[in-house]
Design goal:
With about 325 residues, the chain is mainly alpha-helical. The chain is built from ten helices and three strands.
Length: about 325
């Protein structure tokens, strides 16, 4: 899967959230609605999250150094993980606390037209941002379902924006329900209940984001399709007769490390083996452009060693195992 950073989606979400945050705080000031305050903090947290994603993308572009020889590609994962922390603490936990306080000490919503008008505006603005994120994601996800795309994407930005925008739209509906019920019944408790529901929603989304980005931080292998392309590119059927074992690792969304032990003929010369390795590396980079670091170790295939099974310390035979598909 391509590792596009989805900059257009991030910028669209940032612009929408800044405008929405200002409007929600104004509505809170005039109406006293806790749902408006929670939603305002939510939009402010989302704006900060988009800034974090942009900063992470910029830092990831730095050149490799002797201290960090594989570069800084994982900066994007780190900042995406920070987004989940901000969403959990600033967005979710604050909303739950504010809603709890409103349930304990309810008061009527004043100047109802402010929160209702702002919520309608926010739905339109968030809808525009969500549409942009969907459009960019559709160019990458192919035949994958949305849940598969979010789980398997190696670039964290688009899944983050998608989940944030989806959560924002659901949160706006919850806020409308809370404010509407508070107005219809004259009981401000409904506004507090709506606020708590918004907080629970944000906490759930933050936990999903944290789980996915943690997996990326730990280091994920290439996708099934990429692994098959690499296998096909390595074996030439002449000098390189097979793959004894292979490991792949994403150093960043657009940087892939490949390490493989390859089977060569026992009577090949060193020059022939070196030439075959160079040719294999060229084929790999042509098939999988994000393959940046490639280590190919020649060896003589041994059926006795292969019989030991897929032991990391042994020399397993047969094709490299395909990833289960995160």
């Amino acid at each position: 899967m391509s590792a596009s950073g989805g900059s257009k989606a991030i910028v669209a979400a940032l612009g929408a959230n800044l405008a929405i945050a200002v409007s929600k705080f104004v509505a809170f000031a005039f109406s006293g609605s806790s749902s408006m305050l929670a939603e305002g903090v939510h939009s402010l947290a989302d704006s900060g999250n988009q800034f974090l994603l942009l900063i992470g993308g910029k830092k990831a572009e730095r050149e490799a150094t002797p201290q960090h020889p594989f570069g800084y590609g994982r900066e994007r994962y780190i900042y995406a993980f920070l987004v989940s922390i901000v969403l959990f603490s600033v967005g979710g936990m604050f909303a739950i606390y504010e809603g709890y306080e409103k349930i304990r000490h309810p008061h009527a919503v004043e100047h109802w037209y402010w929160p209702v008008g702002v919520l309608v505006f926010a739905v339109v603005a968030e809808g525009f941002s969500f549409r942009t994120a969907i459009k960019e994601s559709n160019e990458l996800r192919g035949k994958l379902s949305w849940s598969q795309f979010i789980r398997r994407a190696k670039a964290p930005e688009l899944p983050v924006v998608l989940l944030e925008d989806f959560g924002a739209l659901i949160g706006l509906v919850l806020a409308l329900c809370g404010v509407g019920l508070a107005l219809l019944t004259g009981d401000g408790v409904w506004d507090g209940i709506g606020t708590v529901c918004i907080g629970v929603l944000l906490v759930m989304i933050a936990l999903v984001l944290a789980s996915e980005t943690k997996s990326l931080l730990l280091g994920e292998s290439a996708g099934v399709e990429e692994v098959r392309k690499i296998e096909d590119a390595i074996v030439d059927g002449d000098t390189v007769t097979g793959i004894i074992h292979m490991r792949t690792l994403h150093l960043g969304p657009e940087e892939l490390l490949i390490a493989a032990k390859i089977a060569v003929q026992h009577d090949d010369t060193a020059a022939e083996v070196a030439s075959a390795i160079n040719a294999a590396e060229t084929r790999i980079r042509t098939s999988v452009p994000i393959a940046r670091v490639i280590y190919l170790e020649p060896d003589i295939y041994s059926e006795a060693e292969a019989a030991k099974g897929p032991d990391r310390e042994a020399t397993p035979g047969g094709p490299a195992p395909h990833p289960a598909g995160h």
